[in-house]
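Usage

Read records sequentially. Each one opens with the input sequence:
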Amino acid sequence: MEKLYLYQWTWPEIKAYLKKDSVMIVPFGSTEQHGLHLPLGNDALVAIRLAEDAARITKTIVAPPCWYGWSPHHMAYPGTISITPETLTRVLYEVLRSLIYHGFKRLIVINGHRMANLPPLQIAANRIRNETGAYVTIADPFYLGDTVSRKIKESPPGGVGHAEELETSHMMHIYPELVNIKKAVKNLPPKKKFHVSDPYVITDRTFTPSSLESFRKITEPSGVTGDPTLATVEKGKKLHKALVDNLVELIKLARKEKVVLKPVTPCF
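and closes with the structure output:
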């Protein structure tokens, strides 16, 4: 299938596609600072590349990507664009509802923006699932690649956070021209009871959101949390392969899901 994206197709071609398949991949990311060494589009680029690679293998259509996410604390650094969680929820909800109305009833949402985007996207997916009966699943690379990430990471406790070893390794493999590893700097957060941002640290913890000011204070002057200096192309290659393999398997499983749609109207 030469044309991956929905916007490359004509409506008669989409009508013909829907007679044989009903899967759509929907990439969501963000435009936000990623330290001194990674591009602002990091999260969206990851979602897009994963969608493209999995789509080629499974012959699946990809929806136009969403480059914006919920990134309030990253507004501490120039270039970040943040939309409200309510807007993000609404965007995904209305995109999915439009696709379902036309007959796409199995939807794979790829979230490249980790935990920040997840709650708004989960709300939209839950509403769509219950209102329409469609199969909707959110594939976040951070969780979809959990097994391989634990094997390849070498960071000490606190070393996995933002623009760190795993994110940097992945980008070094898929978009090496956008990475300046010479500018990567380590910034391990101070140890503080219950306030542990590294998800791979086994400990008792709470969720404490960062303010713009507090995030700037703990990440200056780079915007990084964690240790990107341990990143390598080889780690990124292993991570990407595992993620694509899992996405391919997920899409194949989605095609086997029994789906009975309820009457759906478009959003007006």
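Summary fields computed downstream for this record:
- The chain has nine helices and four strands.
- Strands lie at 23-28, 61-62, 106-111, 135-139.
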